[in-house]
């Protein structure tokens, strides 16, 4: 399984202009690491700040993050970050940053990627944000 994940990451890195030998080396290192810190972008649009305020009231254990590949006119690799409480209806809270999405989009499609909330940040006059761990799933 790790080999499959590393090859998917490697192919994505090659598409970004990295020579194949460097892409393979970096992809193997990423696959072995297994998890990465991330932050959703686009959290200030629509009702997302209101949703984050509500989410802040819940413990991390009841918040689920879903990653959904949602190509659109601006980014064919866009990956939506959706949240739900107690496995209820999911709400799009933001997106993976463009570069991150271009590397992780295929893994999301293959159900080889997951996310787990770390913290809702901001408040006290600042915009709220959501930090999470991206995890490779074997």
TrEMBL record:
Provenance organism: Propionispora vibrioides
Gene Ontology MF term list: hydrolase activity, acting on acid anhydrides, in phosphorus-containing anhydrides; nucleic acid binding; zinc ion binding
Coiled-coil ranges from the UniProt annotation: none
Protein name: HIRAN domain-containing protein
Record domain HIRAN: where: 50-135
Keyword set, alphabetical order: Hydrolase, Metal-binding
InterPro entries: HIRAN
Pfam families: HIRAN (PF08797)
């Amino acid at each position: 399984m790790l080999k499959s994940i590393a090859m998917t990451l490697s192919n994505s890195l090659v598409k970004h202009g990295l020579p194949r030998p460097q892409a393979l080396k970096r992809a193997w290192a990423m696959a072995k690491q297994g998890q990465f810190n991330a932050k959703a972008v686009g959290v200030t649009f629509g009702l997302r700040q209101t949703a984050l305020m509500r989410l802040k009231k819940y413990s991390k254990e009841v918040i689920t993050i879903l990653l959904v590949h949602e190509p659109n006119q601006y980014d064919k690799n866009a990956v939506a970050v959706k949240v739900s409480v107690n496995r209820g209806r999911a709400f799009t809270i933001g997106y993976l940053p463009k570069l991150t999405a271009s590397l992780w989009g295929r893994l999301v499609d293959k159900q080889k990627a997951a996310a787990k909330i770390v913290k809702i940040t901001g408040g006290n006059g600042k915009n709220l944000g959501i930090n999470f761990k991206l995890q490779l799933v074997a």
